[in-house]
Amino acid sequence: MKEEITRHSVKLFQQKGFSETSIQDIVDSVGVTKGSFYYYFKSKEQLLMEIHSRYIDDLLHRQKKVIANEENNQNKIAKIIELIILDIKTQGPNGRIYLREMRNLSKKNADIIKAKRSKFRHNIEQVIVEGIESGEFRKELQPKLITFAVLGVTNWSYQWMNPSGDVSVEELAVIFSDFVLHGIQAKEG
Amino acid sequence: MKEEITRHSVKLFQQKGFSETSIQDIVDSVGVTKGSFYYYFKSKEQLLMEIHSRYIDDLLHRQKKVIANEENNQNKIAKIIELIILDIKTQGPNGRIYLREMRNLSKKNADIIKAKRSKFRHNIEQVIVEGIESGEFRKELQPKLITFAVLGVTNWSYQWMNPSGDVSVEELAVIFSDFVLHGIQAKEG
Amino acid sequence: MKEEITRHSVKLFQQKGFSETSIQDIVDSVGVTKGSFYYYFKSKEQLLMEIHSRYIDDLLHRQKKVIANEENNQNKIAKIIELIILDIKTQGPNGRIYLREMRNLSKKNADIIKAKRSKFRHNIEQVIVEGIESGEFRKELQPKLITFAVLGVTNWSYQWMNPSGDVSVEELAVIFSDFVLHGIQAKEG
Amino acid sequence: MKEEITRHSVKLFQQKGFSETSIQDIVDSVGVTKGSFYYYFKSKEQLLMEIHSRYIDDLLHRQKKVIANEENNQNKIAKIIELIILDIKTQGPNGRIYLREMRNLSKKNADIIKAKRSKFRHNIEQVIVEGIESGEFRKELQPKLITFAVLGVTNWSYQWMNPSGDVSVEELAVIFSDFVLHGIQAKEG
DNA sequence: GATGAATGAGAGTTCATTCAT
DNA sequence: CATGAATGAACTCTCATTCAT
What we know:
homotetramer, mainly alpha, Arc Repressor Mutant, subunit A, Tetracycline Repressor, domain 2, 2 domains, 8 helices, DNA-binding
């Protein structure tokens, strides 16, 4: 039931926004009563926090695996981009909430999520640092800013990308990896 | 007075979000009463619509000038990126509202804004198309998707960029132009 | 278990008030679940009724003994005052609920308790009547009103008296008996 | 209107209790809507606080005058008792709320009211101290405890006294003054 | 005996909006 | 132009109570 409520909430938050979705909307959608909602969740914010936590925890976990498994830094970057882009199809609504609705977390909860987001960002930054050291990427790059550029490319996709449109997530991942790698690779030969 | 109300609203919407900001918050901030607000604005949504309209109209106007004045497509791209990034300093709050708060427009108004946003996007796409034709940019690029990538890089900056931090908007514009152009330029020689 | 629930309830009702204490508060305090509560009590009101009933039944029982055992009416008054005041130490919370939370009984139950309270009051009144007849107390006293005065002195003590403060309940009982008896005794010879 | 709301609230709080009276009850009684209530009061607690404040401020003010105007301490005591008892007729509901509903004030507000209540009590205590010194009252009395006894007599009257019953407030004031003064006066001659 | 999930009514509060003055 | 009183709908959340297991 908790799962059920969460599922419907994610869908509604994504469509209408967190503040614009009422508890009534949620329970009507699930087909239960308000009392039930508050049996499972202490507050509306707690529900939002759970959505955020799950999402970023899962992302961090998979990012870790990718970084551990890929051999060179170019591939690591490509795989991280792929990770985020392929998720649009399976995790789209979750991702959109994750990217838009942090304002509605309490300071305490927001801090927890922010720390994890930073971790995710620093992991990418680290790959770029190592890619520069290994000669894969251009020496003059500023890893921190490039990381923000990469995240801009991937995260913004959650705003416009339609996985059932004429470009598939798989194709998009390749195209964006290509764009990013051209942007940062050192000249060959 | 209308200007005054708009100014305070922009600041508040950016800090707390549109739904989370009450008319009371706005009029308290300005130092007038609710009656006054409704003398100048038909509704809260109309205020939001005006903020959106102004912002995108101004952006389109300046984009047009840039495209007209720059000679080659590389410079056009660089100048458009600069346009968006430099704005973070002067138009940050407006920009953030523009990027986040479209959900709260009525369908009718949202459609108007969406059309203008598309125009802005198509103008960039057109530059890329022409850059490919002129040989400046790589033949295999998909202009539409590259446009989304570029907008991702610039728009996402409104989320994290602090114009009074250790990287200035001017530096960031150069760094991001460089990144994007490396990503799309045809191999020389 | 029923005893256990009642004990914890009395403590909570006294601290926060009947309406302000939820069934959840009670069962959390006891360490059981709501289902259990409703196994032992038909309703929250029934619990309150039992607390009231026990308290006044016990009081009436002990008042009866005191009146039967004491020889003169002065001693009867003194012993009744002692009875109520000493209880602050052992029955404080029960007493406070008894004095404050009658509003939350249904009419039917309230009537039952009111009848018993009246009985308690009339018993005191009767002692005063007999004391006047015997010449112990002043002729001009109005027994009914004096009874209310005595009850005011004793009952109000439940509001402010701290049995572990610098006056003990034993001392207070003596002081208040003295005050009351001076107030009603006939001038001696 | 604020006055109107307060008046109806006092009546309802007295009848049903603060927690048991809903904002809906209040506005239905006045004939306005909930919005109006919150136009005049920040919260339900603020309304309660205003009722408490007014009541104790008025009481303190009048107590001060009585103490200043009466010549001997016996009269001061008698007049203070009269003050409280006569109020049952005109201020009954206010008084009952004052005596019963302090639990529902926030700690901050409760502290303010408690301080004023203590002032009222200390003023009586002071009269007793001076009466002992002047020889009017018995030497062995403990002023603090006697004060509580006197307040018990008067305050408890708010619970049972019916000003339109067969004893008038004026008569009761005389009877209770007489009872109290007999209780504390030094033996004459 | 005891649990835990579920209910439904109602609580206090907020808020965009209206309108007579 | 501007105010301030008033509305009514909706909001988040609480709670006594029920009942299948």
